[in-house]
Each structure stands twice: as C-alpha cells, then as structure tokens.
Amino acid sequence: MAKTYIFAIGGTGSRVLKSLAFLLSSGVECNTDSIIPIIIDPDDANGDVSRTVDVLKQYQEIRKKLKFSDAHPNQFFKVKVDSLPESTNFKLRVEDSSVRFKEYIDYSNLDRKNKALASILFSENNLNADMEVGFKGNPNIGSVVLNQFQNSQGFQDFASSFVEGDRIFIISSIFGGTGAAGFPLLLKNIRSASEELASWQLLRNAPVGAISVLPYFGVKNDADSEIDRSTFISKTKAALQYYLKGVNKSVNQMYYIADKIMNDYENNEGGTVQKNKAHLMEFLSGLAVIDFINTSSENLEGENKVKEFGIETESSNLTFTNFYSSTKSKLFKPLSSYYYFRYYLKNMLSSNLEMKFAKEIDLKKDFLTSDFYLALDKFNNHYWDWLKELSENERGLSLYTLKDGENVFHSITGIEPKGGGILGMLKGKDNNNRLTAQLNKNAKKHNENIENNFMNLFYKSMSNVIEEKY
C-alpha cells in the first residue's frame, strides 16, 4: 500500500501539517493510502507542535473506527494517518538539543586553533544560545545540530519501513532557523542514504517533493529576543541562492510560496506560548502536499519541476471566488460538505435524535458520549478554531461566515444558494430543516457499526445538499 512520509520541520512545518489534516478530514482528493507525519522540532514544548499533535491524534482516533470501500460513500477522514513504530507524538527525536550550543560542540575542550575557527563561524550569541526552544532563526547553529539525522532511531525506522511506491514530502520555512537548516540536511541524508540501510537504493531514487515557505509573517521588535524580522529577507535571499545550486535538483517537485502582506506576531522564541494564528500560506502549503501526492509517477520523472501558487483576484481576505476555477473545483464541495457536517453536529443533532434518519441507523443519545463522537467533537473544535484564525489573520481566508445558529445556506462567503431568498425560505427550501430532510431521505439500515453508518449517511447527505444548492 503506497504511503507518503511527510517531514514537517519547525513551527511552520507543524502548522502546515495541521492544515493538511483538516483538508484530508473533509475528503479533498488525495491519492495515497496513508500519510506518515514526522515532526522535526527541537522545541518539545512548542505550542504550535502540541496543537498539531492533538489534531493528528483525534484524526487517528476517528479514522480507526471507519471502513472505506466502494460500498462506503463516506470520504471524510479517508486517508489514514500512521506514525513510525517508536515515535512519540509523531516526532523524530533531536538528541542533545536542550543545551547551550557551545556545550553541544564541546567548545571548552577544543584546542586553541579550533576555538578560533568556531569563533569565526559562530558569534558569541550563537555559542551561548540555549537550544531548548530551537535555533531562533540561526540556521548555522541548526545545520550543526540537525546533521545527526541519519544516526537517529527515527530516521532508521523511517528507512526500514520505506518500500517501493512510497513517496516523501518535506515542509519547511526558509527564513528561520530549524526549517532553513533542516531541509537541506534531511534531503542530503535521503539522497545519499547509507548502504547499510536495506532501503538505501529506494531512498536515493525516491519521489521527493518539498515546499519552502518564504517570509509570510513578521515578529514585533524585542531587544531581548534573538529573533529579528529585519534579517528574514537577507536570509531568504542567501538560502535561495544555495537552493538553486544545491537543493532544487535533488527534488522531483519543488514548491515555493510567499506573501507580500505580512502581519507581525508576538516575538515568542518558542515554548508553550508559541501559538501563531493559522495562516493562508499554511493552508495553501497543505494543498501543495496534496498536489504532489496526486501527481502521476510519469510526471515526476525527467526534469525537476518548480511550482508556485497564484490567486485569480487580489484581496486582503480571500474567499472561494478569489481562486482560479481549478483550485475552487477541488475544494468547494469537500470543504463545504464538512462545514455543513460540523454545523449540524454542533447545532442540530442533539435535538433531532427522534427523526427518521436517527432511528434508521440506530442513532441514540449515548452515541454522543462515545469515544468516537467525543474525538470527533474535539477535532471539530480544533477545526473551528483553525477556520477562525484563518479568517482573522493577514492575509485572511474567509471561506465561511462562521456564525453558528444562522441559516447555514447563507454561510458560504460571497456565494448564494440556488433558489434562495425569501421565496425559497417560504417554500421551506432555504432553511436548516433541509439538512434533516436530506438525512431522512438517505437513511437506510446497514449491517455496519454505528460509526460507519453515521459517517456514510452524513457524508452522502451533506454532499447531496451542496450539489443541490450550489
């Protein structure tokens, strides 16, 4: 079964991974049997990483109860999320990174000449840097620490499980420390895999995709912080020159993405307080992962391809109408079907347990306290926060109005339903009861567990409503 290993490096990598999880939960077409997220971040307490890990765990909890075949119409959570055998919270362990850099390189025991060389390569701040929360925008430090990739147990586990037909995708930013350092080193270790590894030939020739996220946010000035937004562009330019000569040719499909609108975040060097709002660039980077996965093997051969993403019409807050038709056609139905699904569960399900559809699939009140439903509810809370953060950021993404309790048929920003308006409401064709009517119409008894019956019914019904109304 074909797998896609997704290395998410640094805070940006984890936030992209979170967006990808929400895209996959909605059933956006993704032609892989499973994804295996591998998070690389020395900051164990990073708030962005913690949120992503929780999203992935809830996804797994939901997915393990579901079956997928031609007999099961449900596409929500279709792609399986796996993890490496010995990984904790999807993370590849970076050893000895919770010390000061000078201790890591054993500076005090270097001879005079090597101390002099280290002082040329690294500033005093570099040498005294506490790496417990990452590399704070210093790829020169990160490149030394992360060069241990190939010796880690996580990398060994990845190599051992990699088989013919599998793919690799690497997510990183180019303007910080962890991502800028980690991407080239990880790629080098894959393309020059040790012959001691059983899969070394497969790794050297594996289909590899990568996205490098250029500056898309800034940080507020803070004299006490080692992170300085004024260095982002110069670091990016230097890294792009290196990527052009030493990286791009080793990747089958390379994606670049950036935005000229940059909001300044709080200057948090890491730890639990680092919880950046979800951003459009992360959403689009998730689409890049899916684009790579959906690219045929034939189109990955030959000359290495570099891709960028564009919008059809400029706006400080994007909706479906700002995307080119090819993007909109991939996203509109699955994302809107899931939005309706979440809306019904949050606002209508508990009061409709006596309706025909509930009786047909044997849906009872105790289902709402089951482990499956509680995981789904927790996942949907993360999903709602994600949508809100996307809409509040700069540049924003406001696909939906995000108002619980409103007429759901008017919740897709900038797009009115067919047969809507006052006449439609008077005829009962443009109100929330239409969702229940569709559930009643589609409900049938099946010899499946309640979780499959539930998801099959809701996927089919919400998809039918989206097709009918839009």
The spatial strand order of the largest sheet comes to: 3-2-1-4-5-7-9
> Which class do the helix and strand fractions yield?
alpha/beta
Helix proportion of residues, in percent? 40-55%
Reading off the top of the CATH hierarchy, the class of the largest domain is best stated as Alpha Beta
Low-confidence residue ranges: 133-137, 267-273
Number of domains: 3
> What value does the Rg take, in angstroms?
24 Å
**Tell me about the biggest sheet?**
7 strands, parallel
The overall strand count is: 11
Residue fraction in strands: 5-15%
Q: Report the CATH architecture of the largest domain.
A: 3-Layer(aba) Sandwich
Shape: globular
Question: Any idea what the CATH superfamily of the largest domain is called?
Answer: Tubulin/FtsZ, GTPase domain
Question: In the CATH scheme, what's the topology name of the largest domain?
Answer: Rossmann fold
Distance separating the two termini: 36 Å
For the structure shown, list the relevant keywords:
alpha/beta; 470 residues; 7-stranded parallel beta sheet; Tubulin/FtsZ_GTPase_sf; 18 helices; two-stranded parallel sheet; Rossmann fold
